[in-house]
Amino acid sequence: MDSELSRSPVRPTHGVLVSDVIDRRPVGRFHYLLLALAGAVMFLDGFDTQAISFVAPAIAREWGLPVASLGPIFSAAIVGLMVGYLVLSPLANRYGHRRTVIACTALFGILTLLCALTTGPIQLITLRFLTGAGLGAAIPSLVALTSEFAPARRRSSFVMFIYCWFALGFVAAGIVSGIVIPHWGWRAMFVIGGIVPLVLLVLLLRYFPDSPRYLLMRGASARAHATLRRIEPGLPADAVIRADYSSVEEPDRGRVQVVVDLVRGRWFLSTLLLWTAFAANLAAFYAIQSWLPTIVGSLGASSRVVIASTVLTTIGGILAAIVIGPAMDKTNPFRTLGIVYLGGAAFVAALGLVIGGGSTWALLGTAFLTGTCVTGGQMSVIALATVLYPPGMRSTGVGWALGIGRLGGIAGPLIVGSALGAGFLPRDVFFAMAVVLVVASISVLMLERRSRTQRRA
């Protein structure tokens, strides 16, 4: 073997730190398989989350529902996501990330299939809520496990890579629905969204790994050793594997205790700043995604321009992740994201200026640039959470940041709607969203300063 570990066999009496095995090895087949499986689950999460937007109008026509009744159908999964983020994701500290991901994938696959059998809105709302809870519980574990197996020098890139697949799931839902619904009806969308996760379940059961640190804390040292040998085949069979947790970071704690740790002592201000960045970013993201089509359309643009301007915000974020992730790994991740948010503020303000200017190309170009920072920033701040929190707190930290941030995502579109209803111009609304992104930038930069102080201490 050409690895450092295999050239210098480790003596069992000294032991081997998990982080040493992970960080010293180059990215290889194990990592590619992990990224493929995690990315596939994230893709299906995104597909299932967005599919309801295209299915709901067809449901309303078949059931004779008024348009106003679609609101609870749309929001049921979002509320479920919050429950999954805040309540269910901390359970991974007890049951492990592997079990959590597998159970949640099975759960949202089965529940999505059941959605195809619904005969009324109450049944559908209930199932969408439960499906959202399963989706919300899976994402933090996917992010935490991916970041744990990523070499430290590639952690942000790994996390942003799998989150790109979540965004691609949004795009795929629109494409597939345009083909499936006209030919086979809306129920076929739920059949597809349910069967594919259950097929993927076979691969997850066979190949998806569990956290070696979690296994060690549970006394399953043989399984931890076998997992690490998938990364480093030259690891001596008699090597003693040690988890590299400090006494305050061990994962073998109660679910409530892990949540409390996020908001007390030295973590309180850091968590508060991270939550502020999440909420501000998601407020701007969902406000733009929700209202940009309506605003552009109300100003006389064609339906093709309306769709293109909205889709470009997602595509811009996906392409930006290719640049932002490596930049966060190679430079200071906090400063990188702070600059991204400042760029986002400038582009959102520019979008407000060009949105009624009559130039289609200026609108589309600015929408794309806005997406690079707003959508790209949303992916980046999740990667930042994995850098901020130690492994024992990572899943809960990511889950709660996503959950609290979702409050911003709910508030953003509501505030924009109220502002437009009160007579504010679209330009003024976009200027206000730019200010929100400046708040996100300040929060991240303050978090960088606090993290640097903590490292020195």
From TrEMBL:
Domain of life from the UniProt record: Bacteria
Gene, per the UniProt record: pcaK
Ranges of residues in domain Major facilitator superfamily (MFS) profile: 34-452
Protein known as: 4-hydroxybenzoate transporter PcaK
Assigned GO CC terms: plasma membrane
Coiled coil: none
Membrane topology: Multi-pass membrane protein
Compartments where found: Cell membrane
Alphabetized PROSITE patterns for the sequence: MFS (PS50850), SUGAR_TRANSPORT_2 (PS00217)
Main localization category: membrane
Pfam families: MFS_1
The keyword Transmembrane is assigned to this record: yes
Keywords: Membrane, Transmembrane, Transmembrane helix
InterPro entries: MFS, MFS_dom, MFS_trans_sf, Sugar_transporter_CS
Record has Transmembrane as a keyword: yes
Transmembrane segments: 30-47, 67-88, 100-119, 125-146, 158-181, 187-208, 272-292, 304-324, 336-355, 361-388, 400-423, 429-447
